[in-house]
Specification:
The protein has nine helices and 18 strands. The strands form four sheets. Strands 1, 2, 10, 11, 12, 13, 16, 17 and 18 form a nine-stranded mixed β-sheet that branches.
Length: about 300
């Protein structure tokens, strides 16, 4: 058992420049983005004029949403040179991934750079998944799916949002990969169906949000359904020679909560890692980006 924080690995095309006062300033390739970050409750290091001068695009929250405490609603204010789409490369030990980025209506860009620690983990343990079945639930735009495919896995990518699936498919093509299987489905429904079919996987990757909706309006609430989902994953994962990775972004949950849930359903666990994910800015401030739990059986 290892309880430790994991920081962003070497990522040439990404940098957290500064964070504070509820915002973060990041470089993605040649463009610098300013957007809300509720965990950054300390003060910024850069002055407002410096921050504004650097940013090619700034996400401004709607006043009504600020008052109602909604975190993600708002609009982008961009400088003339800021395009609708651009691209980002990630390289590690011969693995080369390419992502399309965009300024979405909910402040996201199409990538979570801190997840590079798990892309590396997947490649470092490629013997586990080479020519084996891999299930990626809540898979978004597919960073982990691409890494698993590069490692030789037979990847099933499940997300409830068709637009996210299409975006992930573009990233697959940009990365020179092929044959990932795309499933537009609610994660809980898909997991139940796979159990009924008697299917199992050499690796399961989960990145569930705090809340969400399935393609047919199915409701997902992390605090109500996570325990059941992990119980199903315990049935879907090979009992030996297998890999499991989960991340949570919900504020307020300790990594110990995740450890307790995991050990409840994977009772023979001895060697595993869990803790906080974080990114350090150029001034040395550590920005938490979620919690993780992962293991190899």
């Amino acid at each position: 058992m290892t309880n430790s924080s994991l920081s962003l690995p070497a990522f040439k095309e990404y940098e957290l420049i500064d964070c504070g006062d509820g915002y973060k300033l990041e470089r993605y390739g040649q463009y610098i983005i300013s957007r809300p970050e509720p965990q950054a409750i300390w003060k910024k290091n850069l002055k407002k004029e410096e921050w504004d001068a650097k940013a090619n695009a700034h996400f401004q929250r709607n006043k009504a949403d600020i008052n109602s405490n909604k975190e993600d609603a708002g609009n982008w204010i961009r400088k003339d040179e800021m395009p609708d789409n651009w691209f980002l490369n990630y390289d590690y030990q011969g693995m080369s991934l390419k992502f399309k980025l965009a300024l979405t209506a909910f402040k996201h860009l199409g990538i979570f750079p801190e997840q590079a620690v798990n892309w590396n983990y997947i490649l470092d343990n490629k013997k586990i998944i080479n020519q084996q079945r891999v299930l990626n639930l809540f898979a978004y735009t597919g960073g982990a799916s691409l890494a698993a495919k590069f490692a030789g896995g037979d990847v099933v990518h499940v997300d409830a949002v068709k637009k996210a699936i299409d975006w992930a498919s573009e990233n697959q093509q940009l990365s020179g990969l092929h044959d990932i299987r795309w499933i537009v489905e609610d994660a809980m429904i898909y997991a139940r169906r796979e159990i009924t079919r008697g299917k199992q996987y050499a690796a399961i990757i989960l990145d569930p949000p705090a809340y969400g909706r399935g393609p047919k309006g199915e409701k997902w609430l992390l605090e109500e359904q996570l325990d059941e989902l992990i119980a199903m994953c315990a049935k879907l994962l090979y009992p030996r020679n297998s890999m499991f990775i989960i991340n949570l972004y919900s504020m307020g949950y300790s990594a110990l909560v995740l450890e307790t849930i995991m050990k409840t359903h994977f009772k023979s666990l001895k060697n595993y890692e869990f803790g906080d994910l974080y990114i350090q800015d150029s001034f040395g401030k550590k920005l938490p980006t979620g919690i993780y739990f992962r293991f190899i059986l």
